Amino acid sequence: MEARHHLLENPAETKLLPHMPQLDGIRAVAVLMVMWHHFQPKYLSTSVGAPWGAVGVGLFFTLSGFLITRILLRCKLKIAAGEAGMGGMLRQFYVRRCLRIFPLYYATLLFLVLFNVTGIRERVWWHVAYLSNYLFSYRITKFGPVERHFWSLAVEEQFYLIWPLVIFLTPRKLLLPVILLTIACAPYWSTATYAKGQFGHEWMMPACLGLLGSGALLALFSLPEFRFHKWWNTLIETAGVIGVPLFFIYVTSKSVSVKIPATQPATGITWHTTSFFGLIGDTPAQRTGWIDLGFDWIGGAHYPVTAVFAVFVIGMAARGFRGPLGWLLRSPPLVYVGRISYGVYVVHMLMPHAAVHFFPKWAAEKGWEQLFAYVAASLLVATVSWYALEAPINRLKKYFEYEKADKPEPRGLEAVASGSPPSGGG
Question: d(Cα 254, Cα 205) in Å, to the nearest integer?
Fold first, then answer.
């Protein structure tokens, strides 16, 4: 195991899984993509078509699906061996997730509410309940740019809520079909909602299951205890052969228009319009002829393309890239940015808002100077958050290690989770 500088230690790590430093590098690349998308100079935002923000979020989703499912599968093995109970494992999982996610998120919400940033008080309960994606998808009320990225945090939390039950209650022989079905839900949902004229499909959890589920599939193939491990390398290499060319074409091509008849009647819903993925027109009346899907096919191409590419990149990083790329991904600066990437993601949209408030003329430029200033400020605030708030609270996880979960009587739901029939008769 590689020796690490004390600044790179992570009290949030679980003993169930070995540390894979290159995955921290992937996190760093993902959050830098998101910041580039939000902070890039104005003249580039209209000339560079690659949706790097969506790609970065897609990498985060796939990585979450991979790491969370690996942990849950390890827990499932312990349940099957009688070393722990499902109830105890669920408790440990949810407590550890709360300790990692809630403190910074709710501290940020508290700050926004205290200063009523962009009038957030009128909609704060949507964010408190992790329903931001519903709020934004259906435009229940207006919202400000400082909170727009909360939709992805809501998706992650909704996934964390249901996925442990799916993994624990699915018999081992059905894990692969269930994960494949989970992945298949995404294009079905996206196509169905596009057909109904609902742009909000992209921000809903079912639309993101292709990314999350792809990470889960990679996790299932990664563990030797499961019969699919022999296909681990094949899965990664196949994803590379398919995903790398598709991804290169996707991020370098100019926008291509694909049109379908707009048959959806007026509904009174306010519609989104975005540079790359939005429907053309802000009201149903403006879309009486055709819907221009821009760069996407029906349901959106960027999620499936990113998912396949992410399986390759994450799988290779888990195995360990060699050469200059491997060195870069495990380099201390990139590993450190990956370590604080959650904090960077949560707070980064506050930086332009603060600049507009205090330095309106300077912020209006939206050039390279502003880009570097916002990135630096985001890293600084996230560093303070990590050492003052997140890391101290994460040290409490030592009291909720999975090895400390209660041992159960192997019957009922515990037996279902292990894939064995319930013990006892009648």
Answer: 28
